[in-house]
Hints:
Elements: H1 2-22, H2 29-54, H3 62-77, E1 80-94, E2 101-105, E3 117-121, E4 126-130, E5 133-137, E6 140-145, E7 157-164, H4 168-191, H5 197-216, E8 221-222, H6 228-234, E9 237-244, H7 246-250, E10 259-265, H8 266-284, H9 286-296, H10 298-303, H11 308-334, E11 336-337, H12 346-356, H13 368-387, H14 394-427
Helix pairs in contact: 1-13, 2-8, 2-11, 2-12, 2-13, 3-4, 3-5, 3-11, 4-5, 4-11, 8-9, 12-13, 12-14, 13-14
Amino acid sequence: MRGKNFGIFALLIAIVVVATWLEGNFVAAANLKTLIRDTSLYGLISIGVAMVIITGGIDLSIGSLIALCGVMMVQVIDVRYERYDSVGSIVEIERPEDGDTRLRMDAVMDPIRAGDRMVYAGAFSESQVYLTGEVTQDGNVWLTTGNPVRSLQPGTAVSMERIRYTNPLLACGLVLLAGALIGALHGLLVTRAHLQPFVVTLCGLLVYRGLARVWTGDDQVGLGSALADFKATVTGNVFEFPLPLVAKLSGASESWSEWTWIAFPFTGVLLILVAFVAWVFLEHSVAGRHLLAVGENEEAARFSGIRTERLIVMAYVVSGLLAALAGILFLLEWNSVQPGSSGNFYELYAIAAAVLGGCSLRGGRGAVFGVIAGAAVMRCLYKAIVVLGIEQQWEMVIIGGALLASVLFDEIWRRYQLWKSAKSVATS
């Protein structure tokens, strides 16, 4: 296991070095931030599927569950507008070359929040202007919008529509609960109905994608201008950290001594928290050791008094929960979900990252930090393809080749360990 973990980290470093040598922009600050964000998002679902793989199972439904949970989040948020009967007029309009357009009204209004919209009579029909907030200057309240709204002029009569939606934290909680329940259903079908994990989750892959498409009429759905502050927090940066040499390698500076500050996104913090909990569970808890024992030999674990069914169900619950979390995060990143395509092949990326990171498809083996390194390898390979200008058609070929190489290495390493154990027994 340690040998394979060392190998995946060595592979990650090799990819970064080669890609940077071929194209310095690979380590540009913006690109590194994107790599951290993408690794975090894919790392979360990889940890979830790793828990299932450790038990000797598989979860093929992750991509479809991400799409379904994204659609569910949109439906639960339930963005709607309520029109106020009061009508006011625009007194003054400022349209700076840079920045938001500002509008001053002739009446005192309730505070505006991002997503509220102003409605007025256009040339042919009713027109709408989405507002981003308000600012106060010299005692006057100005409404702001990112639209220059050339059709609006002082004296235009307008009315307001206030945006309404479910509390985002409550909505996230409901979606996460749904993901956990779906995972529990998978676990119960595997343990109680004695169905094969491949069959159960393959059916889930088809059913959840179909439900997402039926729920939305196969149309793209999104949050629009709702949850602006919440989205800014979740998709924003938490802190910055310095890196040496990056400025010179990326061509941003001529000096080798200059340090570059790299933004660390909120999703990266989530990954760290989830990874820490998973690491403590696997490496420093009795239940984690029991989970590894279940994957190594379920029957022997059962005879040893381990509640194998409960642990297997728990693994699927974790996988479903993290898939639901990823569905929420991807929605907030994209602001919309396409039920027919969102999340496509993500289950394969997650499985590949888990296998690359040291999980054996036979079960019984897995390391959290190796899985994260596997996710990083997958995203670095993808980003290298983009930065180096390689045709996108090669993405699947390269990722598939990396996965095949990892599986071959896993088999060679397993046989080497068996040979080493047999040799030590023979010589003792």
